[in-house]
């Protein structure tokens, strides 16, 4: 699926940023380690709170991306089908890069060590899983991990390059169905809110996967954002 090899390239490019992502997340973790040092089970709390911050920050960035393509429909002379398609392609590429890097960052917050191919396959699986029919509210972390592990294992068998084509061909129709965000004047806020929600949803699925703790987390013992 050569027309979808951009997703494979995106995974490779974001992978080159992994050392920087690790350094940034580890710096954030230090702040929360001081904050949570009196709490029982601080490692669990630090990971949860750091991942919450990562999800929030990525969602806000994604909201900014959502306004870019929506704006094309509000500017006289630019609200053509060709302009919208062009803007949508850029929107989706930037959004997915943010979401891929969010998955990588959450894996660092939970101190999950994987080689780059495994991390790419798992991230690809999370991208494909989030928003799919299998991804329903209330699904447990254990079930999420099992389903994503099965997908990632299959992706490694057939090769991430081939798998990325299949995931992209499934993702694009799902994302492009949101074309109603290009309604004049309403498009910008709709595009932003859709990207925010999808990024938060993906971040929560990534946290379910990378978390190794199944017991509820009490945030009463650790204050702050």
Q: What is the residue-averaged pLDDT?
A: 74
Describe the main β-sheet briefly: none
Element order: H for helix, E for strand: HHHHHHHH
Number of helices: 8
Shape call: globular
Percent of residues in helices comes to over 70%
The helix-and-strand class reads mainly alpha
Give the domain tally. Answer: 1
Q: What's the layout of helices and strands?
A:
Layout: H1 5-16, H2 18-35, H3 42-72, H4 81-109, H5 116-129, H6 141-158, H7 160-176, H8 187-210
Question: If you had to describe this structure to a student in words, what would you say it looks like?
Answer:
The chain has 225 residues and is mainly α. It has one domain (2-210). It is built from eight helices and no strands. The protein has helices at 5-16, 18-35, 42-72, 81-109, 116-129, 141-158, 160-176, 187-210. α4 (81-109) packs parallel to α8.
